[in-house]
Amino acid sequence: MSGRFEVRITHRAEKDIKKLTQQLKRKLHDILTEVIAQDPFQGKRLFGDLAGSYSYRLTYHDRIVYSVDVKDRVVYIERAATHYGE
Known about the structure:
Blueprint: E1 6-9, H1 11-18, H2 22-36, E2 44-45, E3 53-57, E4 62-69, E5 74-82
Parallel strand pairs: 1-5
Antiparallel strand pairs: 2-3, 3-4, 4-5
């Protein structure tokens, strides 16, 4: 799939991002612009309660969870927090 996707951050993800260190915020920005906006399907497809969403590793414990609107070419960042509920 060619071309960039627009990245939109949900209110819930904004709360998660506020809790990140400056270093992780920079890393998140780089991942969103250089990876997810370019090809959102590089993430891991999720199943179960999160079916239809994707996950991309931010740190060993933290994941970026997002959904993709292919028609409108928009990626919605849903979460940017720990995968393990810590």
